[in-house]
Design a protein that fits this description.
single chain, 148 residues, alpha+beta, Thiol Ester Dehydrase, Chain A, 6-stranded antiparallel sheet, 3 helices, 6 strands, 39% strand, Thioestr_dom, hydrolase activity, PAAI_dom
């Protein structure tokens, strides 16, 4: 299986995130890497996304949003029509490993893409309060694939 994306797929995803999806755009999500079987998305640190801790830490819901979005988008190239088909979350399991206090990056890998259901494994990294970049969450998502 080749790692090449269908023509226009990356541009469509970037446009969708930056221009069409208000929440992802508000979070500042960007596409860092995108292949036929994986995607890496990032969110820059912003105080509006933090818990009221000292030092401030990124709210876990932000990591979950990034993981869910990456897991679903990683499956889009497996659709019969990647530009017009759809993906919806069936189940998302996130395990938080440590507090995050910097930029977030989620990397999702396709585990299996069937005709109607796909599964992705997702890892989220961030700078931790001690200044190291480490995995802060790990998860797996199941997604309904709409082969329109």
């Amino acid at each position: 299986m080749t790692d090449e994306l269908p023509t226009g797929a990356r541009e469509m995803v970037e446009y969708y995130i930056e221009e069409e999806h208000g929440y992802l755009s508000w979070l500042g999500v960007s596409v860092e890497d995108f292949t036929k079987n994986s995607i890496t998305l990032a969110i820059p640190y912003d105080e509006k996304l933090t818990n009221t801790t000292d030092p401030p830490t990124i709210h876990g819901g932000i990591a979950a949003t990034l993981a869910d979005t990456a897991g679903g988008l990683a499956l889009r190239p497996s659709l019969a029509d990647p530009l017009n088909g759809g993906v919806a979350t069936i189940n998302l399991n996130i395990n938080y490993l440590r507090r995050a206090s910097g930029d977030l990056a989620a990397h999702a890998e396709v585990i299996r893409a069937g005709n109607s259901v796909g599964v992705s494994e997702i890892y989220v990294e961030s700078e931790t309060p001690d200044g190291e970049t480490q995995m802060v969450a790990a998860g797996m998502g199941a997604y309904r694939l709409f082969q329109d």
